[in-house]
């Protein structure tokens, strides 16, 4: 009984994997010749949503990178001011 149940579960999982692989191929633009106009529109909509999410994530990452760069710039400018002050103090000592 238990083995039969495992076989059924494995068979169900194999079918599910095959279906997911089929949908993946469609999203990658493969095997589209069998698609109806409605299926193509659904694929197009899904790709547009995904593209929007990718672009939003990319923009978020760019904003983070810009923020980090501005922070680093501020730190370097402060360090530069401190170094100029040190140089001024040392040249005052020698003159």
From TrEMBL:
Pfam families: K-box (PF01486). Residues 3-93 form the K-box domain. InterPro entries: TF_Kbox. It comes from the Eukaryota. This is K-box domain-containing protein. It comes from Brassica napus (Rape).
């Amino acid at each position: 009984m238990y083995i039969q149940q495992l076989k059924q579960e494995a068979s169900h999982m194999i079918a599910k994997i095959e279906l997911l692989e089929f949908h993946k191929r469609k999203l990658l633009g493969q095997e589209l010749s069998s698609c109806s106009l409605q299926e193509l529109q659904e694929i197009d909509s899904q790709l547009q949503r995904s593209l929007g999410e990718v672009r939003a994530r990319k923009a978020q990452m760019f904003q983070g990178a810009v923020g980090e760069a501005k922070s680093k710039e501020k730190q370097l400018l402060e360090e530069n001011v401190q170094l100029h002050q040190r140089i001024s103090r040392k040249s005052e000592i020698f003159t």
